[in-house]
Amino acid sequence: MAVRLKDIADELGVSIVTVSKALRDRPDIAKATKAKVLERVKSMNYRPNLTARSLVTGRSFLVGLVVPDLIHPFFSEIAKSLSTTLRKKEYFLVVSSSESDPKLEQDEIEHMLAHRLDSYVVASCQKDPEAFRRISDTGSPLILLDRSFADYACNFVGVNDYRVGELATEHLIAQGRKRIAHIRGPATNVGNRRAAAYQETMQRHGLSIPEGYVIPAGEAGGALGEERGKRAMDAVLALKPRPDALFCFNDTVAVGAMVRAFEVGVRIPRDMAIIGCGNYHYGGKLRVPLSSVDQRAAEIGRRTARMIISLLEKPVPIRPRTVVLEPELVVRASSQLC
Questions:
Q1: pLDDT tens readout for residues 133-148
Q2: 3-class secondary-structure state, position 97
Q3: 197 shares its domain with 264
Q4: Do residue 90 and residue 131 come from a single domain?
């Protein structure tokens, strides 16, 4: 038989309210009493009845997160930070991957809607925002993460992707590189903005972009990103003249490109400088540490969590909020000669 709050209260000779306050870490309860309650909760293997709490409060205390790739360090870092921040307010994260498949993304959202979560966070691979109107109809807060839609007003948290491309390209130019190629990402607003910044920065410095110098990699997360980085580097190596620098859509693509370059004897950065985006934890541990543009994934997760909590605590509808963080350049050996 499941242990109830009343059972714990009776065991300790205190009120149910006192037990509840101890479990919620309320400040208006003595430390000694709180310690006794928590000790008894552990010894009696108490588990809160979330269904009952949901019936009373009208909330599930669950937030849904749908991302294209759970292996991708960028999204896993966001999920970790988002979960940690939400947990402090007693909300918990339900995470799902769409595998960059629009149909699977819709199915995952439908599944979450059936469980009536309190809020939804989606890094979408959709080409249009129609899939999100079902969420809007429920009245639950929706936050688009990393990827937005120009014609769809919605809460959004992400990074300035134009600045990502600008920082990377400016850095390579500052190293004296003039034949700079770009392995671009998918045709989302993220990939498009980074590619546009690369092209406009090159033009601003009077540098040409020969035919073939923009190489598409498509969706490029996790192991898939590395494989596509290798294939894209094959195309880069075949270019005439060969580029002396390479801006990669993200770090997984950059790692794949570097692996292929090493295999054919290209010296990095002497023969070709390379920079990625994401500043993943392994970037400094590679054979040649990878320069990158930090997207501030952990801060994106924290800001998203704070936005969710704020939206849930204010039932009066407000205009969609937008948080756009500024990226940071992290220079390592892959793009800078000693």
A1: 888 888 889 999 998 8
A2: strand
A3: yes
A4: yes
